[in-house]
Amino acid sequence: MLYSQLSACLQAHAPRSKRFILALSGGLDSRVLLHLMGRFIRQYPHYQCLAVHVHHGLSANADAWVQHCRQWAQEEGIECHIESVTLTLGNRISVEQQARDLRYLALARHVQPDDVLLTAQHADDQLETFLLALKRGSGPAGLASMPVHTAFAAGYHLRPLLHASRQEIMGYGTEHQLSWVEDESNQDQRYDRNFLRHQITPRLLERWPGMRKAVVRSAALCGEQEALLRELLAAQLANALHSDHSLIIGELASERIGKQLIRQWLSRFDVRLPSQAQLQQIWHSVVMAQDDANPQLCWHNHQIRRYKQRLYIVNQWPDISDCYQSCEIDQVYSLPQGLGTISLRHSAQGNLRLPRDGEAVSVRFEPEGLEVKPQGRVGKRKLKKLFQEYGIPSWNRRRTPLLFYGEQLAAVAGLFVVEEFAGQDCDLDWQYDVS
After folding, report:
1. Which residues form the Lysidine-tRNA(Ile) synthetase C-terminal domain (predicted)?
2. Residue 25 is assigned to a ligand binding site
């Protein structure tokens, strides 16, 4: 029964895919999925399957789990790859959430175009996810919980066991005499999901045995409603999106429509959605702020900022204003925080002169107090004012590379050359994908 459900699901949702990436924790659910996939690829040998085990290092048994996963995958004729990740304990993100985020990042590295990631969540997991969303006061998007099929990385994410119960999966594992690992953290009821699993859902299902299926059905209906909303607002979102991926405030219409457009905009760029209270704050404190204000709202690792009547998604980067990179001519240097590469290179049609003897070349990011005259301009101006004139948002002004000859600013990457350093000997080449 379970195998026929899986086979039908794979062929219905992955008709173009020939390769599956199986997330293998080694627990009961993924162990059963591994066994099912072994049967599937033996029946349909034109399909491929790769198992990926993510080693979090949180358990004393983690190394042993690696060996078990390798052995079980080998028994099924499936290659197994191990990904090791390191959690930063003690930060503001819960261990549970951080482990999940790092796990999916590791899995995404293996998903090529049209590949399908397989995970082993089932109907009981869906019930727990629904209840957690209910506890948070989520709307239809949150109550939709986990979809059966969705886009993921360069391919797709499929949960082929989502309509099966934990009891059915346990029955399959027992029937086929499978062994699996038991993660001791699953007994720790300090975690909300474990508390629900051990204390709440058994009593709910005892009282209402059909609740598991009812929740799966309700989650699917919420998902359909959310998909319909996206479809109805697609044209408005397209009109509101600027070419630099910012959101044009003047296209947001009413508060009700505008907040939905903001949510869909954030979803498009894989940003974790803000809570209802945070979304309310974005609307009233950022969108509706005075024109001369510099409003922002921070949550998780992102900020929403406003500049020139547009909203921007900004990563919360650490300050790099004290960063110093010495440079040699015709050498390429990597800049911090994904800011690309930079080089000062010889060019017969350049706009910079060569540095003179004793002028050490460096790249810095601290614009405070600098006053210069750009080539072709009249008079000196403070760099802060020049950034404003060139339309550089405030959060990027300490992330724009500044080229120094000695202790003098010679050029601002992508903007201008300082008058006294103009020439035709070389160019400052900053390669940075702003999208």
Report:
1. 361-430
2. yes
